[in-house]
Every structure is written in structure tokens, then in C-alpha cells.
Design brief:
Helix content: 55-70%
Structural class: mainly alpha
Largest sheet: none
Strand content: under 5%
Shape: elongated
Number of domains: 1
Number of helices: 2
Order of helices and strands: HH
Number of strands: 0
Radius of gyration: 17 Å
Distance between the termini: 25 Å
């Protein structure tokens, strides 16, 4: 029994990953000195770097999903 998932599902999931990754990187992954009441700590810097890194990973995964569904990434056999 084969389950056929329509390609629109993968386009939507890819778009969600791209948008969520951009939002995560832009909002949680950067420092806003105007809103901080205390100095930056190494723990906060580490958390910001993690949010930025994984936000970019989400964007890359979403773009890969969109491009592979569209057939732009052909796997060679």
C-alpha cells in the first residue's frame, strides 16, 4: 500500500520552515541593546548564537525541501 502525498504539502512545509527560520534568526538571534537593562552575559550570547544558527538551519532545510520537491535538485544514480 503506497501513500501518495501531494507536492503542495512539501511546498507549504518548506515555506513554513523558511519563514520560521528567518523570524527565529531575526528576533531571537540578534542583540538589541536598547531593550536590555543589564549587560550581556556569556549565557545570553550563547543562546543568541544558538538561535541564529538553528534559524539558518531551518531556512536551509526549508529551501532544500522546496527545491527538491520542485525537481531543481536532481539526484544522480
Amino acid at each position: 500500500m503506497n501513500i501518495v502525498i501531494p507536492p503542495i504539502f512539501f511546498y507549504v512545509m518548506g515555506a513554513i520552515l523558511v519563514v520560521a527560520g528567518v523570524v527565529r534568526s531575526a528576533t531571537l538571534g540578534r542583540r538589541n541593546p536598547d531593550r536590555e537593562l543589564v549587560d550581556d552575559t556569556p549565557e545570553r550570547a550563547k543562546a543568541r548564537r544558538r538561535h541564529l544558527t538553528f534559524g539558518l538551519v531551518w531556512v536551509a532545510m526549508g529551501l532544500f525541501l522546496i527545491f527538491s520537491t520542485a525537481g531543481l535538485l536532481r539526484l544522480r544514480h
